[in-house]
Amino acid sequence: MDLCVTIKGVSFLLQTGMGIFGNSVVLLAYANIICTEPKILPVDLILCHLAFANLMLLLTRCVPQTMTVFGLMDLLNDPGCKVVIYAYRIGRALSVCITCMLSVFQAVTIAPAGPRLSRLKPALPSLVLPTFAGLWLLNMAICIAAPFFSMAPRNGTVPAFTLNLGFCHVDFRDYLSYVINGVAVSVRDFAFVALMLGSSGYILLLLHRHSHKVRGMRRSHGGGAETRAAKTVVTLVVLYVFFFGIDNVIWIYMLTVPKVSPVVADMRVFFSSCYASFSPYFIISSNKKVKAKIVCAAEQDQPSADNQESSEK
Q1: pTM of the model
Q2: What is the percent of the chain where pLDDT is above 70?
């Protein structure tokens, strides 16, 4: 096997394995939290849904990509490609939308109480599920064209204005469809990233200008926890925007050429999936609830392992 192909395959394999494991751990931890704790904060539900969206992205994009890199061909037929590509597009869209939602909800949570926010803040928990439903419907509608252009790879040369994903082709057939699809996706992404950056900037402004006041006002209501959560959200936003920037620089380049090199397409897949792979580990390291559940599960497994060893002796 060629050295470059080996490096690419190992990179995708590590990224996919780490991402699936990390997001699965976060999902299981939050599932336990939701089942055992009487009061669930909006941020917990949002982070749980973010882990699900990231897991969905990795399973539908990185897993088949990794298998293709290692030489497994003809993985999917035309209907399979349509389902996988559609699910991937929705997962990718939900990742940016839910990160934005997380930032906006956290900004509202730590904002000083005012005439309008005094009514909005108590309603935040009841708005989480309707917002999830709205984001799902929005992105299902925006991504609805993806199945119509997706197909299993054909023998021969790749036509112009076709994204060669290795395991599937996305054939836009003409330049107009190619550009309209790219513009629609980019407008949605940039809109949510702009809102994400605005709310995160507001969070930073509050933490910088009113840190002492906020700590004093909220000490009896878990203000320290809110501040830690706000810093976690801002860091997640910075992480997303960094990889989003790399992803979109490559995407804009892809829109300017009629035939995209597989190497360029692979680079975009890798960088666009980095957030989904790295974010769960940051959530685990910065979220005390998730960390406590993981430690508790590890401690419960340890005695059983010790008992098994002693019985074998």
Answers
A1: 0.86
A2: 88
